[in-house]
Amino acid sequence: MNTDKRQPRNRCSTYLAAAFAALPVAALAEMPGLSELGAGWNAIPTDGLCSTGTPYRFHVRPGADNSRLLIYFQGGGACWFGQQCDLTAQPNTHFPFADMPENDPAMQRGVFALDNPDNPFADWSMVFLPYCTGDVHVGAGERVYTYTKADGAEVSVPTQHVGYSNVTTVLDWVYGNYTAPERVLVTGSSAGAIGSSFHSGFIAEHYDDIPVVLMADSAGGYNSPNLPVTFRSWDTASVLPDWPGYEGKTNENLTFEDFYIASATHADNLTIAQFNTMNDQVQVNFTLLIGDPPGSFSIPERLLHHYAEIEDAVETFHTYTAGGAAHTIVATPLFYTYEVEGVRFADWMAGLANGENVGDISCVDEAGGCTNAPD
């Protein structure tokens, strides 16, 4: 989840006006097939929605090698109560529109720096799922929030927490167009890391005869006792599949750890992995927003518990943990520069995606420890 890209009020108003005007056209648009797409990035409209009711779209870039497929879930905050989801209230804590620059893969770096000769994924085919529903891609439907402003005015905020439906639409397109890939990498950053961990099980279930790898980026520190407040708002329990890992799970006892464990234990062709930094300030800020009192938690402690719970439940789980406070790496320039224990993250992720036994990398073993970011 990410709080550092907030939309000024006038910018949100501009987006709302333009997006609502385009709604009837987007809703009626048919999705083209892979053979109809041009080189480079293609924006594909769907009948899905963003939190405000504006249209949802996704992006596809056919690769030089369509046998290797990268599916990326974008992050961008979250909302689970009225003031958070109301775009007229500031600060805004989630990306509310699919056509924002932040939801354009051509504006991203890291694995999306296709002109970088050092990019190990430059030839892969890529599907980019924008994020605009405020529900970490796992919301089950509309929620109408109400709250009272300081002046006594009652405010109603209809919010489309339809992340699950949007992702299902995109994955149906992927399954129909990438019918026989040889390898699939599922990844996502921040809120997208959480969404990718949930949906990776479905992807691996569909491609059950090939290796599927999940690399979740920067969302391991959210094992808060107050987390149910989010699942209640998004009604995530209502879209849980009938898998053993979700047996007995409700909005009251569901955790983000469950997503990793349920996906990995359901699909034995799925390998799961994570990247985190030990002092990720965005994870701190969202944990405070969830309701944990200041001083009641630490990200390093929660990461260790998070890792241990997953490791106890699954056969293979890889982690790359860096020092410092950076948030996200996969779609940033840090992808090429971060190096821990002499292992550059770009090389570690490339090895992971290609089925190598990459092991665990941790700043604990660095001379400077986990306080400082990698050079």
What is the strand and helix layout of this fold?
Blueprint: H1 9-28, E1 42-49, E2 55-61, E3 65-73, H2 82-85, E4 124-129, E5 141-148, E6 154-161, H3 163-177, E7 183-189, H4 191-206, E8 212-217, H5 228-234, H6 256-266, E9 270-277, H7 281-290, H8 299-313, E10 317-322, H9 334-337, E11 339-340, E12 343-344, H10 345-353, E13 361-362
Parallel strand pairs: 3-4, 3-7, 7-8, 8-9, 9-10, 10-13
Antiparallel strand pairs: 1-2, 2-4, 5-6, 11-12
Helix pairs in contact: 4-6, 6-8
Mind explaining what this structure looks like?
The protein is of the alpha/beta class and 375 residues long. The chain has one domain (9-365): Alpha/Beta hydrolase fold, catalytic domain (Rossmann fold). 30% of the residues lie in helices and 21% in strands. It has 10 helices and 13 strands. The strands form 3 sheets. A 9-stranded mixed β-sheet has the order 1-2-4-3-7-8-9-10-13, with helices on both faces. A two-stranded antiparallel ribbon has the order 5-6. A two-stranded antiparallel ribbon has the order 11-12. The chain is globular and about 60 Å long. Mean pLDDT is 92; it is low at 2-28.
